[in-house]
Amino acid sequence: MDETSPVRQWRVPASLPAVKLVGAALLVALGLLFADGDPVRLALAVLAAALLAVWAVRDLVVPVRLAVDPMGLTVVHGFASRRLLPWSAVEAIAVDRRPRLGLSSETLEIDAGSSLHLFGRYDLGATPEEVAAELRAVRPDTAE
Questions:
Q1: Cα–Cα distance between 130 and 144 in angstroms, integer?
Q2: What is the pLDDT of residue 143?
Q3: Cα 46 from Cα 91, distance rounded (Å)
Q4: 38, exposed or middle or buried, with CB in 10 Å at 0-12, 13-18, 19+?
């Protein structure tokens, strides 16, 4: 990748925050419907809905989870900040596959020595294998 290469970004699919917000609204509606006057049931439904809504807000505030440019990788860090990992700090780019409940899940792992960054399909809007292959292709040879 040369200095004039464009930045490549991977982001949360645009529909995902909307699905989470609809899910939060449904949780509140179900809590109201099935609470039967029990404040604990309603409070649990509202709490779960609030957590789902906060998760959706994060998707709206920081939709780009991973970006690559000539300097290195920019990853989401914490709730809504970003962190640049220079290519020299990136020790490994791998895809972890695990069978779970009859399904296989893939996670992109970026090992930066003192930190490990994990991304799933819904973080990237693409399969972790595709993203890993693209990252390996643009990574400078001197970083290996």
A1: 19
A2: 46
A3: 42
A4: exposed
> pTM of this prediction?
0.82
What integer is the mean pLDDT of 61-79? 93
Q: Is the pLDDT of residue 2 over 70?
A: no
- 49: Cβ–Cβ under 8 A, 6 or more apart, which residues? 23, 24, 25, 27, 28, 31
Which residues, 6 or more positions from 7, have their beta carbon under 8 angstroms from its beta carbon?
Answer: 67, 68, 69
> Which of 20, 115, 97 is closest to 63 using CA atoms?
20
For residue 5, the one-letter residue type is S
Say which amino acid occupies 53: A
What is the CB neighbour count within 10 angstroms for residue 27?
Answer: 20
Angle at 142 between CA 139 and CA 144, to 5 degrees: 70
The CB-side HSE value for 33 (13 A sphere, CA atoms) comes to: 6
Residue 11 CB: number of other CB atoms within 10 A? Answer: 17
